[in-house]
Design a protein that fits this description.
Layout (H helix, E strand, L loop, with lengths): L4 E5 L6 H11 L3 E3 L2 E3 L13 E3 L2 H9 L3 E7 L3 E6 H9 L3 E5 L2 H10 L4 E6 L3 H15 L4 H15 L7 E4 L3 H16 L5 H9 L7 H9 L8
Parallel strand pairs: 1-7, 1-8, 2-7, 3-4, 8-9
Antiparallel strand pairs: 3-6, 5-6
Length: 227
Amino acid sequence: MAGILFIISAPSGSGKSTLVNETRRLVQGLEFSVSYTTREPRGSEQDGVEYHFISKEKFREMIAAGEFLEHAVVFGDNYYGTAFSALDDARKRGHDLLLDIDVQGALQVMERVPEAVSMFILPPSPQILEKRLRHRSQAEGVTDESVIEKRLRQARQELEKLDSYKYALVNDELEQAVSEMRSIVLCERHENCDEDLSAESARCRTSEHSPKLEAALASFDVGLSKV
């Protein structure tokens, strides 16, 4: 079954990129959507690989032309967006599309493409998230404490939207998280979804409120009543 749109959201520093890359290595026919952004490249990022880096003027022109499936302003100053052409191109090749977007954009896509399969990836605790953010900031040469604090606050806010997502994966052990994402993709495709994969996929449903998910949410002081 080709043409499925998989929405992936996660707080900055959750290890999403590594998880997605590993899953794509194991699952064939799963394309990664390269989004557009007006922010500057970080570290070793390359245009057309991690993002299409464009000017705000060009981004606004694309909005006016109706070229975006979704777009949003993130962290108050930079635009991010996904072009309709990404999904169309994947479907023409008989592939599914992985869409890596923030919560704002994800909610827009869920309204426009209700059949999309949504996944939220979260770290096991705010302490581990802070550690990952600091490690990444050092690698990028950014040492501004306010940036880290802002991203931690943003993570808590994003977690309160978790109930909008069909699945939730706690990325505490990469190998396990990869296995869970692979099971979700294969079972949503109805492809080689045996009893074990089906059970693993079902445990990741947000509505199941697994013990691992409950513990992660509690560590962020996000009550289950909010999700």
